[in-house]
Sequence to fold (598 residues):
Amino acid sequence: MSPTTIGILGILIMVIIFFSRMPVAYVMGMIGYLGFTILISGKGGLNLLSRNIYDVFSSYGLTTIPLFVLMGQLAFNSGISHRLYNTGYKWLGSTRGGLAMATVSACTAFGAVCGSSPATAATMATVGLPEMKRYKYADELSTGSVASGGGLGMIMPPSVVLIVYGILTEQSIGALFVAGIFPAILVTILFIISIYIICTISPEQGPPGDHFTWKEKIKSLLGMGETLAVFILVIGGMFIGLFTPTEAAAVGAFGMLVVSILRKQLTWKGFVNALYESLGTSCMVMMLIAGAVIFGKFLAVTRIPFDIATWVSGFNLPSFIVIGIVIGIYFIGGCFMDALAFVTLTVPIFFPVVMALGYDPIWFGVIIVMVTEMGVITPPVGINVYVVFGVARRVIGEVPLESIFKGIFPFLLAIIVGVIILIIFPQIILILPNLMY
Amino acid sequence: MDTFSNIIEWILDKLKMIGAVCLVGMTFLTCADVVGRLFRHPIFGSVEIVSFMATLTIAMALPYTQKNKGHVGVELLVRLLSARTQLIVDICTGILSFALFGLVTWRMAVYGNTMQKSGEVSMSLELPIHVIIYITSFCFLIFIFIVLQDIINNIRRLKSK
Fold:
């Protein structure tokens, strides 16, 4: 059998085993090891296992992951979500659908200190859903806006998916982070427009809330102070070259800890919980990377990624069609698999293809994060939908899953429009990285 | 069997605590290094210590994450199967995981031994790298015991059905 045939067989077996619920990281590692053993040697395969796992665990570049995860967990436990929501509410609450608009804006702001999409959705659902219920918002709009807004946490830096993409493709994490800022703002604006359209068509979906004076509105901006300060310190520090990503992550985690202590909103129990949650999430991410690295070594030996790149270029298809197909695969894959797992699995395969077409690696990274973000709100996996379903049951009572899925539909359209805009105007993504130090 | 499980649980708990301490340690050390650098006094070898602490953080979290089913899997099809078939599938994947990480544990120890024999040390502080590799191997050992525990529990449940 040729290396390519073995590679294709390996991929097929891997996909079959995926459906057995075995952790994705383990399956990638196992298939990578077995494939490498068959193609190279038994000893080579065994060395690949131990050395690659240790190299991933001990990589200084990857220390950024547990630190950024800790920063997000501390933000989750610090109560800043309430203050961010309050600011959004004071500014937007009096308009139709204003509370939903405040929710998605607060999601973006919270995403600036938290790199996880489900964590953002869970936090903002806890804060936003009871308020929207109080103002008689339709369940579809309230839960849909929280679940979709949570996805913004993945685009707005710091983003765990962007870090992993950066490591796997050897791109600057700082550049990827700043590249995500404008797309996140663009999607937020598109979400707000969607809410405006929904509430114009059916005003009962989001009745207007209380009015506030300009003095109250301006005073509420103080609630954003600490989030903005930590964000500017972390992302700004990387932007001007003051910190490496690891240093920025440590400073951010420390900053969030200080904010939480000063605000007296972090209990010892909350702190310990944040640490243990960070351990679990970081371990999950690092094992995914280790699995992807082992699988990537096997793929490289089979030469499949390069063969696909050559095969695709042989068709002489316009590059936008190829990128459209790749994006379509990410969209479908994101519907069935966790975004991070899907990115780690497919980047070694598609990255050479996209590079051969001459696309910018930073642009591609942000685009695939945007596309897989759709997966967190689409059935059947749609992790954010299940997170919001769980939180809603606790804070406002049972909301049928169908209502939440129905509610995310307009936001899904908004993300698709956002992706199309970013494909037509790649400068939106690239302007900030190009200005970096 | 229960005593053995209790010992494993106890070790898991301690490893988790050490992992959390390492996480806090790497946060503070990196911040101290940044501040020190501002005053032209960076902490010598901080990058190495942070890398070691990060390795320990992740390695120590391995059994805890496995115990809490913290890894991402595709649940889609398995959920549609009967409870009994789900248990059988879980036992099979558990055995595969056990075999894979059994190999990892063994090879990690061999790798540590190779590094020890070659006298490999870190570049700045000349810390012995093999110690960290041995600890990582030990964490994988506890990890595979957790996997084994899951397999045994699933077999028990299957028998009682």
Summary: Chain B touches chain A through 53 residues (CB under 8 Å). The two ends of chain B are 21 Å apart (CA to CA). The first helix of chain B runs from residue 2 to 38. The mean pLDDT of chain B is 93.
